[in-house]
Task: inverse folding
């Protein structure tokens, strides 16, 4: 958490600065959107207006969240984004640890004279003016709740804030299945339910929002599963052509990687997917127990994340990338994970 002195200074900033920007990462997920909207609604409860900007489009299953329609997508509104960065006096940086995670907005953030406040749970954060970084936290949404709590303002957590924070915690904990889901997490979830969240409403919008095309796409990825029994590892993959054939839209593959972990004996899963526009492979890693996919992704695939959930990328073809992955497992003698 921020120090007592930092909290005093941040409170002062919030009473004197008017142009506040909330920023999150490229390919925003449930935690990115939930934490951004949760903070946005909290600032509103304080009587403070703010603007949320994300670099590119976010999944449809998050569009139901209150005021999601007000999120500015930089890809679509370049002029507005330029003006917003030029005028910003405070920039809250949520759910990313380095400016490179915001893609084309990187230079705008670096050159901005605004006070930059980081709230994030990924490892090795860049320096910011104020930093609340805690890798033990399962979601940035949980950190936003604790930030509100540290300001002594939990009484302001209304239904809108609660739904946003609940959604981000739900998605980033794999529906409360990951190891870093703690007793504190469940206490916060309990408080959010008391604030007005109906879990079935979140589940129906986030977890039960499949289209026929997405179900068929899931069938295709499940058909691709390759098991490496000696390494307790499963490999999943999707090509660009497969994605196109089922009318892929952003967010359609959310959670697919977790199906690998549901297989008895599997403790490490890698999901390789061709990017729809660019010639690179997006990789998702998941693990059970103590196998650190964050370090694995950093070392071999220019990525990172958390101990049990991380991402990476490869500029080789999908076939070459999978071969490289298998070679790494063999050469590093990664077995019986």
Result:
């Amino acid at each position: 958490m921020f120090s007592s002195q930092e909290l005093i200074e941040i409170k002062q900033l919030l009473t004197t600065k008017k142009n506040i920007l909330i920023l999150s990462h490229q390919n925003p997920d449930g935690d990115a959107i939930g934490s951004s909207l949760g903070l946005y609604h909290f600032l509103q409860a304080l009587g403070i207006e703010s603007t949320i900007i994300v670099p590119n489009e976010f999944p449809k299953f998050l569009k139901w969240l209150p005021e999601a329609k007000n999120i500015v997508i930089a890809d679509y509104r370049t002029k507005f984004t330029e003006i917003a960065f030029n005028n910003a006096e405070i920039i809250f940086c949520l759910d990313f640890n380095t400016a490179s995670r915001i893609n084309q907005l990187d230079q705008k953030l670096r050159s901005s004279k605004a006070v930059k406040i980081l709230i994030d749970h990924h490892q090795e954060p860049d320096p910011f003016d104020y930093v609340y970084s805690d890798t033990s936290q399962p979601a940035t949404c949980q950190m936003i709740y604790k930030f509100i709590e540290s300001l002594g303002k939990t009484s302001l957590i209304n239904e809108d804030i609660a739904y946003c924070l609940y959604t981000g915690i739900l998605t980033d904990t794999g529906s409360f299945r990951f190891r870093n889901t703690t007793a504190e997490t469940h206490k916060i979830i309990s408080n959010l339910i008391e604030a007005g969240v109906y879990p079935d409403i979140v589940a129906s919008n986030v977890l039960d929002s499949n289209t026929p095309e997405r179900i068929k796409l899931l069938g295709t990825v499940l058909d691709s599963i390759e098991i490496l029994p000696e390494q307790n590892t499963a490999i999943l993959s999707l090509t660009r052509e497969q994605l196109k054939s089922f009318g892929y839209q952003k967010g359609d593959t959310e959670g697919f990687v977790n199906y690998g972990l549901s297989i008895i004996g599997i403790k490490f899963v890698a999901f390789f997917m061709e990017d729809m526009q660019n010639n690179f492979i997006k990789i998702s890693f998941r693990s059970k127990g103590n196998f650190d996919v964050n370090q694995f992704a950093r070392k071999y695939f220019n990525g990172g994340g958390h101990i049990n959930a991380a991402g990476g990328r490869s500029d080789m073809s999908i076939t070459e990338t999978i071969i490289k992955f298998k070679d790494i497992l063999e050469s590093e003698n990664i077995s019986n994970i």
